[in-house]
Fold these 3 entries.
Entry 1:
Amino acid sequence: MSVEHIAVVGAGAWGTALASIAARAGRTVTLCARDAGTVAQIAATRENPRLPGIRLDERIAVAAALADVARADAILLVIPAQALREAATALAPHLRASTPVVACAKGIERGTHKFMTEVIAEALPAARPAILSGPSFASDVARGLPTAVTLACADDTLSAELAHALGSQTFRPYHSTDVRGVEIGGAAKNVLAIAAGIVQGRSLGASATAALVTRGFAELARFGRALGARAETLTGLSGLGDVVLSCSTPQSRNFSLGVALGEGRKPDGKLAEGAFTASVLVELANQKGVEMPISAAVAAVLDGRLSVDGAIDSLLTRPFRAEG
């Protein structure tokens, strides 16, 4: 198939950034926002207030109606994980059969324990689901700073075509068929980023951060292996790469949430996917018999079952064991 027209559903910072990279790659792009006022503002100013200072390429059309994306060759669904099913269901009547639909959210659906491509497969049975994930911040991508990510779907030919359609000199998507591995990395790293932020907020030091990130990645890898992920995916961009990025800078909303919790202050209210993913990640891990003590501690703090100090004590007093 030829991917010349890409629609981006969701006009937040990440959706706007992805629309920009698709235009930079030479594609025709439609950016679909759910709010008519947002559409009018972006169309008039060619700038999204959620991504200030970034002027939209003139090749990007802005629309409010989902029917306007129906003619696209591929659709990027850039919707928060817990709202993705609702958006996909709304898109269903307008979707052409066999259209690739790429999830660009990192999470697991609460209640169902479904990953994003599973939600797409259920809500859009005519679609060809894919996932885009990896170490990337919207502002970096939109400004054209070098970024590499992973794009996965079950069909290797399609994943390569989609990667080619989005790729440019500064945005490099590596293609894969390990859909589950890519999804696990994106979901689990958000929870680990909250933990790393707590360590920062409590001023526990760089040594503690290094230990936390290393042992956290061991959790992610155990969970991934239990669900059939490939080792090279877990140690690749969408796994280890995203852990390194998200656990190291306040640009990560999940890290910033953790810092606020560690400092004992109220979070800023910005969406942090890990806050919704933590409990369902632990539930799914328990079902699979996978031990994830750091993720469990984060979930307990977020749910109000443990204080931050109690969570730290619970990890520091765990029995000594062999590394693995």
Entry 2:
Amino acid sequence: MDTVSSPAAAPRLAGADLVLGFGSHVVVDGVGIDLRPGRVTALVGPNGSGKSTLLRGIARLHPLTAGQVVLGGDEHNGTPPRAVTTLSARAFAREVTLFAQSRTAPQGLSVREVVAFGRHPYRRAFAGLDEADRTAIDHALHVTGLDPMAHRAAGELSGGELQRVWLAACLAQETGVVLLDEPTNHLDLRYQVETLDLIRDLAEDHGVAVGVVLHDLDHAARVADHLLLMASGRVLAEGPALDVLTAENILTAYGVRVEVSLDERTHHLRIDPVSRHVLRSNPAPESPRKDPS
């Protein structure tokens, strides 16, 4: 995949003391998150830890019980941040996009027509696509490897192919903040690797503020500059992968023993679960018996 086109100056998206839930059931309890331009922030944690709900909350798709989400602001020139609740849906969608993990297969539309959904925040009512729209759509199709299937029916695609179509629609939106909920889910190895590379391109080459939910801790360690490890609706640890993804923190969050090592060639963390079968195959050495005398 090639790199993506550059959005306007990327804003910062931040939330403080966020509480989210379903009815009386609290899912996210007093969490803060700070997505900065040029940085990839990964949210990790076991199922039910609240990471996807948190992402949807800052994307304005899940109502906040408490706390506030703000966008932009520049401390250098004194520009204050804006509460996202003050922005219209169209204005917000020009600055923030969310790639959700559950999207249906559109019927009766081509791949290109689905990717064009990403241009809706820029289009006037009943207006057709202009040159900027077509350029953004072409580029999104190209960087996600969808050029050859642009005119295929989206409803006929596999789960992994459709995943890339919706990712392309998000890229066509050309926002300064990109939120991704499990973007490597359903993808084969090639497109997992290329999606992670694309996420790094967004941050490094184009200054986009990226927030991404990932289940695979190795993927999170590889792609993220900053991690939030969540457990039971709270942040258990936050910071660089080396500080967050420790054997102790992973045991606390997931209830699983792991061995954490650093690959000398790539300098990436490697996380190996210590399963029951591993323990059976490699039992701990017995302690020498003491002489009773």
Entry 3:
Amino acid sequence: MTALAPYWELTKPRVVALIVFTAIVGMLLATPGLPPWSALVLGSLGIWLAASSAAALNHLLDRKADALMARTAHRPLPAGQLSARDVLVFALVLGTLSMLILALGVNPLTAVLTFGSLIGYAVVYTLYLKRATPQNIVIGGAAGAAPPVLGWAAVTGEVHAHALLLFLIIFIWTPPHFWALAIYRREDYARAAVPMLPVVYGVEYTRQHVFYYTVLLFVVTLLPWLTRMSGLLYLGGAVVLGLGFLYYAARLLKPPNERFAMEVFYYSIIYLMALFALLLADHYLAAPQVTTMVFERVG
């Protein structure tokens, strides 16, 4: 187990767990009852493997910068636990398995979209965007916002407008989520010559943009209700969660201490998980006919 621990760390398990969770929510929302078990299991497995492959490639391509940053210096490559060749082989094996499972066991569209997301994060974002522009996380966030679309496509074989709403929520959520971390870790990013927003434009400017994006996020999270994708159960929860995020973002403008940026970061994770859980609760509990279908499928 000790020998496998560095490989497990390469997969960024906490980040990937959130990715897979949002993908599964996309699968469950794509159908009134429960989706076919083959699509649910193989789709989740394939997306998990692809996300883990992308995470490993991110470790590989960022190994020099990681060695300069306190937050990442302990990672397997800068710590000397694995070689670059080990990580490359590991990432390629995971990526290949993912594509085979999705293409043969789910459907070609999901495989193509997942491959595009993998390349978007591991290559386009990590290799180019991350060091090309302070808007790196805004543009690169498209890859991280894709999982609900992948999950939806795994069940239905199509990209539905409602799946794109889920994509939009994560896409708008990503900048305030990540910029809160970047504010706290700005010295790390400066040391590694990564032009994150607080490094290039300063902390005050970044705090303002965290607030602006949080306001936009609050509006965007109302769209599932406005488009009748979800009902009042979701709406009530989304408003409460959104007001909580707005509170954190507003307080970040004049924070009580330096550590408060990390409190915003942690809340943003809880926020996204709770928001997607509300989408599921509304989907299965708010409509009696849907609940009946679910129990019939389970029974």
